[in-house]
Queue: 4 jobs
Job 1
Amino acid sequence: MQGRGRRLRQHAPDATTVVVRTDGPQPALVFGLTTGAGMMVSPRAFSSPDLGRAPVGAGAYVLDQKATVPGSKWVYTRNKNYYDPSQQTLDRLEIVLIGTAQQRVAALRTGQVDASMIGDAQELESYRRAGITTAISEGGDPIGVITVDPSGPFADKRVRQAVGYAIDRAALTGTAFRKGMSTPADQLFSRGNTGYADSPAFAYTYDPGKARALLAAAGAGNVPVTIPAMPGPQNKTEAEAVAGMLDAVGFRAKVVSPPPQMIGREIYSGKYPLAYVPVFVPDAPALADALAPRGGSMNPTGKPYTQALELARQAARASVDDEAKGRELYARMMTSLTEDGVVIPAFWSPVGVAYAPGVKGLRPWAGGYMGPPVYGVTVGGKG
């Protein structure tokens, strides 16, 4: 196997063992193997044209094809071959598609559903006004500015840092869409995620005067910058707000909307110096693998971020025997990327769930990267 600039060599010494050798530390490899990239699919299932509609897996619950209505309702029942039956506390799990927040609140109030994911702060307030119990993850999915291509004016660290001081995090999280749910962030990853520091050694504050001074010191004025927006009207609105904040300190920013089906490839193509995005990685090891090395999926520059890469390598080695030391080094790596103006945190967008009184054990993950797990969840005292 070969990635962008990295190689993985593997062999199978026996029927149940695969040995993987890499050309250097790959801190995100284990996480990557737990995602779609690491799926092991039986040859029989893989060759079936129905695999997309009839998935085959080893999870706690399996799709009931007869009860499922594609595009509307997905029904799951217990997997009789699951390795830990104690975690299968539900007899049946239904996921239904309900189009609007108003309909979701009504469905929960009337008992049509037992739980609902919360889309934004306005929906959260609707549940609370209705007296429905809610749970919000600590921290959340990181939203911020990534310097994709530090060339031209952005080759100067002071210009990149000016972006960090220009962002008004309180304003971004104070909108009706975010208020009461999202939290201004002084670092990319929140508590519970590797890379978080209790007291970060460097953090940006909202200081437009300092941003202007940094641009002046760099001899950079009226700096043009095009920012690609993620799909959706709210994402474009926020990207335009960030563009306005940059304009106020001496940039000339504009927002574009790349085709949604190509958004990831487009953002990290090297076409744009900056991106205002949800950072779709769960922690510092995954970010290190994607951003720090030459050829990383978030690094189109052809050059490594040397200091961050070395700290990531040290952290990967240390984590084998001393997890606390590994976390400390990953936190230093994140500080390095933040101070260098490569990673500029804005806020954390958490995962929220609303649920009926009879639901027990439903809690979002710390860090808020994914929806709440269903292991151990019960409804009305029964599965």
Note: The domain at 141-349 is CATH 3.10.105.10 (Dipeptide-binding Protein; domain 3).
Job 2
Amino acid sequence: MNLLKKITYLDNLTVLPLHVEAERAVQNALQQGYGHPRSTNLPGRRAQDALEDLKERISRSFGGSRIMFCSDCGMANGLAVLSAGRLARESGRGHIAVSPLEKSSVVAALKILRSEGSSVSVLAMDESGRVIPDSLAEVISDETGLVACAWVNGVSGTIQPVCELAGISHSAGAWFHTDASDAAGRIEIDLSCTDIDLITVCSLKIGGPPGAAAVVMSNADPWIASVAPELTSMPNIPGISGMAAAMDIMRAGMEPRGRIVNQLRADLLEGLDSFNVRYSIIGGDLEHILPGTALLNISQAPGKLHTKLEMENIILPSHNSTDRLSYLDRLGFDMSNSEQYLGFSIDAGNTSVDVEHFLRSLVMIIQSEKGGRRED
């Protein structure tokens, strides 16, 4: 990578660069000199007051009634799924239905629940990776206590029909959890208007600092806290402050940001067409894919494509991550050349210059590979 050249960052769904407002919120919280919120002295009381304000502010932005903070999304997923699954089993509902594309943190929690006596059914999906709601209707029963399905797949950007799935869950008396970390700030989330009971959100994904995530609940009844594992760590008030500021920024500009990134995505795909780069979109129609995001199958992809693009200062999602490889394998794609599966996620911080940089670099690499083969 040439550090003197402009870097085109197209991995915004994995980690969104820190918003200036979020950085300021972190610095302001650090300067307050907060104590431990469990202490009864003055610094502790000030910390507890700040924490309560942050709880109300973030939960309200999602239409929720209660919130619990964690250090990262994996911990938040584990807290939500383990707590809901255990409480449901104690009430005689030990069956769980889950999508086949959940993150490793949810899968790990399900393994624990299964070892404790819960049963788990995996829902069916269509060829695009979207869960088929009828498959939930077929397996759900009065023994089902929890249904889990991520709102958006972080690999392809595919949006799942979570509101419909939540409705089926509630009709059978089951709770519904969704990992909304990839959806928050990019599509509208209002728990007060849905049958979703629990969501998890992550600061890093919305342009906040690391070290903050949350479980947001639609019900004010603190049932999850009664069975949640004891969290002995001190709440990261500066990190949570940054997450709240980032969420405010994302929600305030959601609609115009969506139009901007969709136009940039359209320009990128049109550019591929104009350069005769053959590709297909993995994950369904664009109407069911998160704004500015896509996972492409590029048939002409040469070896070490991602490495070569990074040498041109193009930063893309990891092509060989566990989540990416597992996702493609479950959808039945040929894994002999993982380089041909190229994903990107555009944010409003990107411009047409980034799109052109990506297109010209990709075409140059493909044409260079073709030229090398002719010489052979």
Note: The longest strand covers residues 293-298.
Job 3
Amino acid sequence: MTSRQYWKSLDFDFAETYSLLRGETGFHFYNQIQEKSRKEPDQKKRDELLSLSIRGSIDLLKQQGIYHPTAVKTNVFARKSREVEQLSQILQTEFIEQSLWMCGKTFRDAIVFYKGGKIVSHINICLSCHWIETCKEVSIDTDDRVFPKLREFFTAIGHPVAEN
């Protein structure tokens, strides 16, 4: 599915943006994972914990809708807002080329979509390796031109985009 197809499939009333795994909270979260892994006697569980720490590929929301411990809500936008229109234009950029970087995805940005007060979907975004996944861990084919635009969009709305 392309980002354009994903966007056209959405039916929502409002969207929230989240920043996660940044700053002191993200630093402490990683340290806690690494400390737990050192104490874990089971090699498989230890590897899973370390992988979690290294990749940082943690969904903003767990199955039950619990937010990630480092997530900070940065904005709420109505469906008809100027910001959602900007986001629409960005995500509907025609898919031409997507670079597949060899780095581990670290989802530090997310957008959650609501309809009738309930979550209908969300996307996790890694601006570093140009990757977007849905809440069901489905990769969204996204043109490389989208990511600088997303970075600019997040910056304009006061959403932190620095890597730390």
Note: DSSP finds five helices and six strands in the chain.
Job 4
Amino acid sequence: SQPLSVSPSVELVGAAWTHKRPSRSVLSDAIGPLEATGKIRIVVGHGPVDAVLGSLNDEPSTIRLAEVEAAIAGGAIHYVALGDRHSTTRVGESGRVWYAGTPEPTRFDEVDPGNVLIVEVDGHGHCEVEKVRIAQWQFINHEATLTEADDVAALKHFFTQLEDKPRTGVRLVLSGTLTVRDHAALEDLLESERQSLAALEVMRDRSDLVVRPDDFDFESFGLGGFARSALLELQHL
């Protein structure tokens, strides 16, 4: 696209996708013909960059970082604002190519979402990027090893420290061995926290939490006769 003048000294260059799978790099097409004019040019584009994808960069729409940095070095463009990644990401070594990421987290596995970038650029080689967090939501992964009541209490303390629970999602990975009594306390805790958190999920496929009765649990069964003898025998296996 043709540069759009937004002031006597600043131009915007748009490189938007017009459909989901472009057959070539729209950004490369936009910056390829540009030459230095003395004006500050900000490029706004979308798509993956080969330097970020690594070996997964065979899509024709992939942005080639070398082309972008050559245009920067030649003074044709001065900053490239990219969309596609949800995590704030600096691309390359120039300090002038960035994904701002999403203003709010959208998944548990995002590295650094929830930011905006404040960028200062001039025509004399200066470019300063400041990351500012604005997210109101948070998604937290938490792992806990539980072997006694104190560990359940520690997990409760973790929940207590969370701020703004209605805008917080938590994903737990739990491991260890608990008695029946302590496991019941854990279940009560999780049920209580589900009422206040936006989301609470225990990752069953990654958790390894075993429930094993202790002497107190066995006594609470109130068994007698043959059943008690069988239980005692099983206890010592």
Note: The chain has a mean pLDDT of 90.
